[in-house]
């Protein structure tokens, strides 16, 4: 990946980390070495991303102490508000079909093998969580986030990150209210994730878009099964 695009990606990943870890203004960020390891990039790339974040007021630096969350207005994201009931869940999943279908298609076109491999890693982590008897909600979210990062589109990354809490809520609602037996639901979701992963790995953007859209539409079907 060109250095500029790599810096852009790390820039968005640091913003995602701030939101994911619920860091507040003044909270300390991980050090350069930790960020480089976390995002699998070199320290010079991290430094360039942090320089941009400082310039935008999103982080601040204190000599000898590291980097901290800034209070720039750019830290604010679109406030979609919480999901308020079952109709909202359906609308949210329909919105994700549009958003994440394209995210998957772009991820399949990525030339960065590491970004595509990270998707497989996240899928396997979700499988492992299920085998341990854990809900795997965070692993599910991480899988979709890895796809967004592989899209290399900063606006998709920012939007999908901004919707993280709504995504958690939607996953919980579908799981709790779906009449489909747990084992059958897990079998279907696992197969759907596999199809998405395989299409992206094969760099088949049309298949990746279709697999992601079908996965999210299946979530709607699990919550609103057809009668008769």
Strand neighbour order, sheet with most strands: 1-2
Task: Report the portion of residues in β strands.
Answer: under 5%
* Structural shape: globular
| Estimated structural class | mainly alpha
How would you state the average pLDDT, rounded?
86
Structural domain tally? 2
Q: What letter string, H or E per element, gives the SSE order?
A: HHHEEHHHHHHH
CATH superfamily (homologous) name of the largest domain: GntR ligand-binding domain-like
Please estimate the helix content: 55-70%
* Distance from first to last alpha carbon: 51 Å
Supply Rg. Answer: 18 Å
Q: Tell me the total number of β-strands.
A: 2
Number of helices: 10
What's the layout of helices and strands?
Elements: H1 3-20, H2 32-39, H3 43-55, E1 59-62, E2 66-69, H4 86-108, H5 113-131, H6 137-151, H7 154-162, H8 164-177, H9 182-201, H10 205-223
Helix pairs in contact: 1-3, 1-7, 2-3, 4-6, 4-8, 4-9, 4-10, 5-6, 5-9, 6-7, 8-10, 9-10
Commentary on this structure:
- It is a single chain.
- With 228 residues, the chain is mainly alpha-helical.
- It has two domains: 73 residues, Arc Repressor Mutant, subunit A (Orthogonal Bundle); 138 residues, Four Helix Bundle (Hemerythrin (Met), subunit A) (Up-down Bundle), CATH 1.20.120.530.
- It contains ten helices and two strands.
- The protein has a two-stranded antiparallel ribbon.
- β1 and β2 form a beta hairpin.
- α1 packs across α3, α4 packs across α8 and α6 packs antiparallel against α7.
- The termini are far apart.
- The mean pLDDT is 86.
């Amino acid at each position: 990946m060109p250095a500029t695009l790599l810096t852009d990606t790390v820039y968005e990943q640091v913003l995602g980390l701030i939101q994911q870890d619920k860091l507040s203004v003044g909270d300390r960020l991980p050090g350069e070495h930790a960020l480089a390891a976390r995002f699998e990039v070199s320290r010079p790339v991290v430094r360039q991303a942090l320089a941009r974040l400082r310039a935008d007021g999103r982080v601040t630096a204190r000599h000898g102490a590291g980097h901290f969350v800034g209070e720039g207005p750019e830290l604010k994201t679109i406030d979609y508000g919480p999901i308020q009931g079952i109709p909202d869940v359906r609308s949210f999943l329909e919105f994700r079909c549009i958003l994440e279908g394209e995210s998957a298609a772009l991820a399949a076109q990525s030339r960065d093998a590491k970004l595509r491999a990270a998707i497989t890693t996240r899928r396997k982590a979700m499988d492992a969580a299920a085998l341990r008897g854990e809900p795997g909600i965070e692993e599910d979210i991480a899988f979709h986030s890895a796809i967004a990062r592989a899209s290399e589109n900063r606006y998709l990354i920012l939007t999908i990150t901004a919707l993280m809490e709504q995504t958690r809520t939607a996953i919980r609602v579908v799981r709790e209210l779906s009449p489909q037996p747990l084992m059958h639901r897990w079998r279907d979701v696992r197969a759907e994730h596999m199809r998405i992963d395989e299409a992206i790995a094969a760099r088949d953007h049309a298949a990746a878009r279709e697999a992601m859209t079908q996965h999210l539409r299946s979530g709607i079907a699990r919550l609103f099964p057809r009668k008769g």
